[in-house]
Automatic annotation (TrEMBL):
Source organism, top-level taxon: Bacteria
InterPro entries on file: HAD-like_sf (IPR036412), HAD-SF_hydro_IA (IPR006439), HAD_sf (IPR023214)
Gene3D superfamilies reported in the protein's UniProt record: HAD superfamily/HAD-like (3.40.50.1000)
Annotated source species: Bifidobacterium myosotis
Protein name: HAD family phosphatase
Length: 203
């Protein structure tokens, strides 16, 4: 029985497309290289540092020292235009939150997101965040921890006051799903709202 559902934000509750921050500012080839899966430009590594509590005023000079002025210009543009990355709610998810709460299921948010840019998220999606019973943000609350760290999942369960066995975690990242399951937290990988609805409400 599921009494509580903890949702990831980006890719689950919110359609997050990081490339949009740089669209029209740099060539398509440069943008694709910046976000390449092999991370040879260091975006994912430094984005993880940001998620773990290093704010942009400290992070950006460190990135420039490591990767040079040209790539630093792109990272600074990303930081300046992060609101562009937040496209809108994922289809069907606001409705699912409403229906879960009507069934007496509590809903929570757990996100890897920077402390200094969290106001961008709250300003963009106030109703979505208000629909949640609480949110734990890595950069603000994690003290250096983030998904898929065991400490971050334990922090969330403690803050939310939820029972691990009757709580379901939903995320689009297989690494985060594996991390949650390693702590004994039931978890499913997000594909779409219909799949989560079937797992939680049976319809």
């Amino acid at each position: 029985m599921v009494n509580d559902v903890i949702f990831d934000f980006c890719g689950v509750l919110v359609d997050w497309q990081p490339q949009r921050a740089l669209a029209g500012l740099f060539s398509e080839e440069d943008v694709a290289a910046f976000f390449a899966d092999d991370d040879h430009c260091g975006f994912m590594y430094y984005d993880d540092l940001h998620d773990r509590g290093t704010d942009y005023p400290e992070l950006l000079p460190a990135y420039e020292e490591e990767y040079g002025a040209q790539l630093a210009q792109m990272m600074r543009a990303y930081a300046a235009h992060i609101e562009r990355t937040l496209v809108g709610p994922m289809p069907g998810m606001p409705e699912l939150l409403t229906d879960l709460k009507l069934r007496g299921v509590r809903v929570w948010g757990l996100t890897n997101w920077g402390r200094d840019t969290w106001p961008v998220m709250t300003g963009r999606f106030p109703r979505l965040i208000e629909a949640l019973d609480g949110v734990v943000v890595s950069g603000r609350d994690g003290d250096g921890a983030a998904k898929p760290d065991e400490a971050f999942f334990s922090l969330a369960l403690e803050r939310f006051g939820t029972d691990r066995a009757s709580t379901l975690f939903v995320d689009d990242s297989p690494y985060n799903i594996d991390g949650a399951r390693a702590t004994g937290l039931p978890a499913i990988r997000f594909v779409d709202a219909a799949g989560v609805r079937a797992r939680t409400l049976g319809a």
